[in-house]
Write a structure and sequence with these properties.
By secondary structure, the protein is mainly β. The chain has 4 helices and 17 strands. The chain has helices at about 50-55, 120-125, 180-185, 210-215, and strands at about 1-5, 15-20, 25, 30-35, 40-45, 65-70, 75-80, 85-90, 95-100, 105, 110-115, 130-135, 140-145, 150-160, 165, 170-175, 190-205. The strands form 3 sheets. Strands 9, 11, 12, 14, 15, 16 and 17 form a 7-stranded antiparallel beta sheet that branches. It has a 6-stranded antiparallel beta sheet with strand order 5-6-3-10-13-8. The protein is globular. The model is unreliable at about 180-190 (pLDDT under 50).
């Protein structure tokens, strides 16, 4: 399966070219356009039970769409995300990966979609009780608001939770105050995510929460 990510980094779109018989699975609402020889089928994301957990306890969509080339020539489907920002790819041959709500865009055959218990720390941070987890040997495409940074950690690492996009399952999360009570209230940082373990984390350079906070006092409705 061939793909190309265009209009990086601010307005990235994913162009997937399918040979006859090939297919790609994408988040509901991710399609921009597709050639006429592609058919779309909608199903529960990861099965009924996991779809329920993903939707009601993880803040994700209940359904995914499967795009399949039923013609006898190459066909292209264009996918994107709802926010302004970059799109990257992760090869699952390097190991499983967990995503924060809203990051997932699409995956290829061989990638297995499931859910992973995230803990009450994630729930207190407003990120849900379950995370979307991918295992297998396929590829996963994900996006974020802003640019994507990859960081290899070994030990403890502090992240503003609104900047965390994805992480390897061996890393644990613990929500805590950014400083003392007064410092947390006055610094503008509030709660932060204390990551612990060894592996890769993926961060976004901008925060949707910060954007909303910036725009709110300027809106006059």
């Amino acid at each position: 399966m061939k793909y190309e990510i265009r209009y990086k980094p601010a307005f990235a779109c994913l162009f997937v070219t399918l040979d006859p018989g090939e297919q790609v699975t994408a988040e509901a609402g991710a399609m921009v356009s597709m050639d006429g020889g592609i058919t779309m089928k909608t199903e529960f994301s990861g099965g009924f039970v996991q779809a329920i957990l993903r939707s009601f306890f993880g803040g994700e969509s209940l359904f995914v769409n499967i795009y399949r080339n039923t013609s006898n020539k190459k066909q292209t489907v264009i996918l994107t995300q709802s926010m302004i920002g970059d799109i990257h790819r992760i090869d699952l041959s390097q190991g499983p990966i967990c995503f924060q709500p809203g990051a997932y865009i699409a995956h290829t055959p061989g990638a297995n979609m499931g859910v992973k218990w995230a803990g009450f720390a994630s729930w207190f941070a407003g990120e849900g009780l379950f995370k979307l987890e991918f295992t297998g040997k396929g590829r996963v495409f994900y996006g974020c608001y802003g640019g994507i940074m990859e960081k290899q950690i070994a030990g403890e690492y502090i992240v503003d939770n609104s900047h965390l996009v994805a992480y390897e399952p061996g890393i644990t999360m613990n929500i805590r105050m950014s400083g003392g009570l007064l410092g947390s209230l006055t610094s503008g940082e509030g709660l932060v995510n204390k990551l612990k373990g060894r592996g890769k984390v993926y961060l976004q350079s901008r925060s949707v929460d910060s954007l909303v906070g910036f725009l709110r006092p300027k809106c006059r409705f």
